[in-house]
C-alpha cells in the first residue's frame, strides 16, 4: 500500500471512529474536563445553589435522580430520556414516575454548560456533579467527583422496574440488590442515609404507618393525619421530621426510635445485621459522612455494559 493511500485510510478510520457512538465510560478522572471545560463545576454549582435556595427539597430530588440513574444500567443519564412514539424510557417506570423529579434543573445546567463548552460534557457527569453539590448545599459531606462518563443512547423501563428497590423491600432483598451492583451492605446502609433529607408520597408509606408493628405509635399517628387509609396518595411527609432539610445523621437516630418513614427504611434497624452500623452512624456523624461520600463515589463508578452505544448528548432528554 502506498504512503498516501495508507494515510488516507488511516484518516478515514480516525474520522469514522470520531463519528460513531463511543462505548462505556473509559477511565474516569477528577481532571477529565480540566482543559476541555474548566468552568463546568462552577456552572453546576451556581445552578444548584439557586435551585436549593428556591426549594431545599430539590437537593434531595437530585440525589435520588443520581441513584435511580446509576442503579439501572450504570450512570449513563438514561433516566433523563423522554418517551417518544417509538421509544419507551425509564421515567415512567414504577419506581420513578411518582418519586423522581428535578429534570428541569438538569436541563438548566445543561443549557449553560453547552453555551460554555458545546458537545463536551455528558449529562451523566452533570447529574454526578449536581448530586455532590446537592449533598454539600444541604450541609452534608463533599467529595471529588470522578468524571468522563458518557450518555447512553438507550434506556430500559423493564430494567428500572426490576433493579430499583421499592419502599416495601426487606433487609435481605436490599442487601442483595446492592450486592448485584457491587455495593456492600455497608454501602447500602450509608447510601440509605440520603433519606435524612427529602419527602415521600403517602402512596409509598401508607402501609408502614397502618400495618407495620415496629413503628412508633405517636409517629404513625402524626403521619396518618396527612396520609389517610384511602385517598391522598400524593400528600407528602418528610423522611426526617426533626431536621427535614439538613443532611445529617438524624435518619439513623430516627430508625432507632422506630420512626423510619418507609418500611424499607426501618428494615435497616429491625433486629438484623445492619443494626450495629445504624447505631454507629447515629452516634458518629463523621463516620456516616465519610462512608456516605465513599459509597457515592463507588456508585458513581457503575458503568453501562460493554458494547452499550453512548455519546455526549446535546439535549439530555433525547439522543443526538
From TrEMBL:
Cystines in this chain: 37-117, 70-75, 123-316, 202-227
Cofactor: how and how many bound: Binds 2 calcium ions per subunit. Binds 1 heme b (iron(II)-protoporphyrin IX) group per subunit.
Catalytic activity, EC: 1.11.1.7
Signal sequence coordinates: 1-26
UniProt-annotated binding residues for heme b: 195
Catalysis performed (reactions): 2 a phenolic donor + H2O2 = 2 a phenolic radical donor + 2 H2O
Positions of substrate binding: 165
An annotated Gene Ontology molecular function: peroxidase activity
Name of the top EC class for this enzyme: oxidoreductase
Binding positions for Ca(2+) 1 per the UniProt entry: 69, 72, 74, 76, 78, 90
GO cellular component, one term: plant-type cell wall
Cofactor(s) required for function per UniProt: Ca(2+); heme b
Keywords from the named record: Calcium, Disulfide bond, Glycoprotein, Heme, Hydrogen peroxide, Iron, Metal-binding, Oxidoreductase, Peroxidase, Pyrrolidone carboxylic acid, Secreted, Signal
Predominant cellular place of this UniProt entry's protein: secreted
Listed CDD domains: secretory_peroxidase (cd00693)
Site (Transition state stabilizer): 64
PANTHER family, sorted: PEROXIDASE, PEROXIDASE 72-RELATED
Family, similarity comment: Belongs to the peroxidase family. Ascorbate peroxidase subfamily.
Function: Removal of H(2)O(2), oxidation of toxic reductants, biosynthesis and degradation of lignin, suberization, auxin catabolism, response to environmental stresses such as wounding, pathogen attack and oxidative stress.
Record-given protein name: Peroxidase
Species of origin: Zea mays
Amino acid at each position: 500500500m502506498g504512503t498516501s493511500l495508507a494515510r488516507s485510510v488511516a484518516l478515514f478510520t480516525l474520522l469514522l471512529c470520531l463519528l460513531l457512538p463511543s462505548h462505556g465510560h473509559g477511565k474516569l478522572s477528577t481532571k477529565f474536563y480540566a482543559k476541555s471545560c474548566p468552568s463546568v463545576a462552577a456552572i453546576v454549582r451556581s445552578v444548584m445553589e439557586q435551585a436549593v435556595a428556591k426549594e431545599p427539597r430539590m437537593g434531595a430530588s437530585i440525589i435520588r435522580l443520581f441513584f435511580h440513574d446509576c442503579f439501572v444500567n450504570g450512570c449513563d443519564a438514561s433516566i433523563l430520556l423522554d418517551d417518544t412514539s417509538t421509544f419507551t424510557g425509564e421515567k415512567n417506570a414504577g419506581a420513578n414516575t411518582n418519586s423522581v423529579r428535578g429534570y428541569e434543573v438538569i436541563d438548566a445546567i445543561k443549557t449553560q454548560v453547552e453555551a460554555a463548552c458545546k458537545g463536551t460534557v455528558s449529562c451523566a457527569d452533570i447529574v454526578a456533579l449536581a448530586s455532590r453539590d446537592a449533598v454539600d448545599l444541604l450541609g452534608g459531606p463533599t467529595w471529588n467527583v470522578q468524571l468522563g462518563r458518557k450518555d447512553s443512547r438507550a434506556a430500559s423501563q423493564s430494567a428500572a422496574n426490576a433493579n430499583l428497590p421499592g419502599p416495601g423491600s426487606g433487609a435481605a432483598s436490599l442487601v442483595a440488590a446492592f450486592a448485584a451492583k457491587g455495593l456492600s451492605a455497608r454501602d447500602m446502609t450509608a447510601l440509605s442515609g440520603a433519606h435524612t433529607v427529602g419527602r415521600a408520597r403517602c402512596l409509598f408509606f401508607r402501609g408502614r404507618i397502618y400495618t407495620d408493628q415496629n413503628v412508633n405509635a405517636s409517629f404513625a399517628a402524626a403521619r396518618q393525619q396527612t396520609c389517610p387509609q384511602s385517598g391522598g396518595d400524593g400528600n407528602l411527609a418528610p423522611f426526617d421530621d426533626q431536621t427535614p432539610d439538613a443532611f445529617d445523621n438524624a435518619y439513623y437516630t430516627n430508625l432507632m426510635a422506630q420512626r423510619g418513614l418507609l418500611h424499607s427504611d426501618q428494615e435497616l434497624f429491625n433486629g438484623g445485621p445492619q443494626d450495629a452500623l445504624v447505631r454507629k452512624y447515629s452516634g458518629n456523624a463523621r463516620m456516616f459522612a465519610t462512608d456516605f461520600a465513599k459509597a457515592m463515589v463507588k456508585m458513581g463508578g457503575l458503568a453501562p455494559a460493554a458494547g452499550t452505544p453512548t455519546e455526549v448528548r446535546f439535549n439530555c432528554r433525547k439522543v443526538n
